[in-house]
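Supplementary Text 2. Reproducibility record for the structural model of the 164-residue chain.

All settings were left at their defaults, and a single model was retained for analysis rather than an ensemble. We include the record here because the model underlies the residue-level annotations in Supplementary Table 4.
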Amino acid sequence: MKVQRIIPAPGQESVWDYPRPPRLESTGREIQVVFNQVIIARTRRAYRVLETSHPPVYYLPPADIQMQYLRPSPRTSFCEWKGQASYYHVAVGERRAENAAWCYPSPTPDFTAIAGYVAFYASLMDACTVDGERVTPQPGRFYGGWITKDVVGPFKGEPGTMGW
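Retained model, structure tokens:
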């Protein structure tokens, strides 16, 4: 299937210019996660994972997350690039989001910088922002990328993209 890449405007990135295997890079942008009216995470010390056809996935240091709101989940998954992932439920007050965040406790050598760092599904949080801009969740139920105005697709996860 031929993908019609969106041409990025000045100041934008195309996910079709991201590498495969993915690249890990640090970012000083302010990342914030809100659930049940509580800021559960805020940092300028995140990493982002950039992979062909995917919007960036942001991994936040546990020191900048209110970890008391994260509960370990029995769910796991495996990434051919990063290794075995563990999941968390997010619970604030009476609200709970199942398997809403994940981390790689012992990632592969290329991703050791994000060992224990946590990523959140924007679709399950009340708001996730990058430098104050509210993100759009990556389509689909599996992927956890965050779409901002400076990233263009098309993005994996949309209908008809499973073969990408």
